[in-house]
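Q: Hi! First time doing this. I have a protein sequence and I read that you can turn it into a structure. Is that right? Here it is:
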Amino acid sequence: MIGESALAIWMELDPAGEQDFNAWYPRQHLPERLAVPGFLRGRRYEAVGAAPPYFTLYELADPGVLTSAPYLERLNDPTGWTRRVLPVIRRAVRNGTRRVAASPRDSAERHLLTARLEPAAGRGPAVRAWLAGDAVRALTGLPGVTACALLEQETGGTSVVTEERRLFGGEVLGGTPFVALCELADAGAEAGLREFWRAWGVRIAAEATVDLYRLMYGLAWLRP
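A: Yes, that's right. Below is the predicted 3D structure, encoded as structure tokens:
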């Protein structure tokens, strides 16, 4: 992961408008977002198996990017194409986050496993302590995992009601208190990771919603 923050979005679409939405995303939306100062990299994924059909990850310089004037200006001045496709969204989970920990290596693999972590009542501090402590070593020690990023929810940037938000055709939900992202060199690592998160949830009293995604495309600023 690059940057100190991320915006993670899980999404379902109306099939009637899905083709137009999928054309809009790489041709207009992704370049538009990366033109906002502080947006460092954007990646869009499609689900492998039963999961919300699409996942997008924007890596940001810091959490303040999501409340910055350039970003809010863009959200409140949607293009005509944007106005046409946003009503296609049937359900979205938008999770603004701050990085808790990440592996030293930045890796963007063909497959990404997302885990949305919901602690039981009173267990939030214990989950955060584990994410900040032993989690990176435990996850990157699993076969097929090349890198990971561990995030906590930062609600300020996703709670603002903008013109784009008003155009969404379905419900927009807030995310879980914590998110884990695991880069997979081999999709076959999914089974081991699912078992890891199942056992982890039992041990620490938290629920992990685990989904596997395949990279569709991405865009990033080149480092000098």
